[in-house]
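Query protein
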Amino acid sequence: MSDTTQSVPRRFSAGDLRDFVARALASLALPDGDAADCARLMVGSDLAGFDTHGIFRLAQYVKRIRAGGINVSPTITTVTEAPATAVVDGDNAMGHLVVQYAMRVAIDKALESGCAWVGARGSNHAGAAATYVSMAAEKNLIALYGTNGSANHMAPWGSADLLLGTNPIAAAIPAAEGSPVVMDIATTVSSFGKVRTAAQRGEDMPADWMIDREGKPITDSSRIKEGILNPIGGHKGYALSLVVGLLAATLSGAQMGVDVEGMGDAEYQKTPVNNGHFMIVVDPARFGDVLDFGQRVDAVSETMRSATPMAGVDNVRVPGDGRAAHIEDYTMNGVPLHATLIDSLNTLAGELGISSLT
């Protein structure tokens, strides 16, 4: 196959991808319902353009499940609660199941009490954060979500000790007519998923993604195990990552800092990651007319989009515009997968004894 052919992604329907993921997870003894939920949430990341957090992660999850590092028959429970708060224990389940459960608890409490804060522990990597805040936006609710990284790839500002994760934060604000405002960002310049994707494809990385222990940029993606992810905004990104981790992990009783053991490291495949998450959900109806609020969100968004673009910029976007465009495109035309990922998934299918992705 030529380099040109190799570089052109093939497109697969979301249904085919969900079926493949569900079959893979069910082959590892996940109950059919849980496997289907994980598949839907994972492929939801791909549909939204977060290709580093969807089916790309399947092989990584499979390794942990096969090693006994993820519980395939968990009992996810609410261990303590009040009218507007709750703590969820995920029983070391797939993170997608834990966060879905916790977000549903937060949504129900927000509808009842006006606002809710739900923390979760005993979880695992859960894919793209936007997937979960969007659950609230679909109910015309506002949501804010944060999680500690499932592995430490960032150092405290001024150090080379890997003590923090990418610790993403996400928010969703519903609109009346337009798509909701959806923010989903890592507190590092690049998520580690993008770094791993570059390594899988043999591509160089931008110079601002990673540094070595002497502070020099790393662009060779084959050296990612030597690297330290740079925080966004220098010391400000470090501070934000620390705060998100404290609220997501420490408050809920999950692992943080030196206690985090990397989900992708072979020597830790059997050790529970104990990811933590927090989600805050607010009902805008408690602040006034919901339709009026949504229309004002639309108006502000249109003001942003109407801003005069600088030279070299096609148009000004609002957070969530790219996600909405990807969902529309990929739902209609299929989700693009690169040849290296397809090969990896089909190798995995052979190992699991399931039919390949075709």
In short: The two ends are 17 Å apart (CA to CA). The chain is about 40% helix and 15% strand. Residues 293-326 form one domain. The longest strand covers residues 115-123.
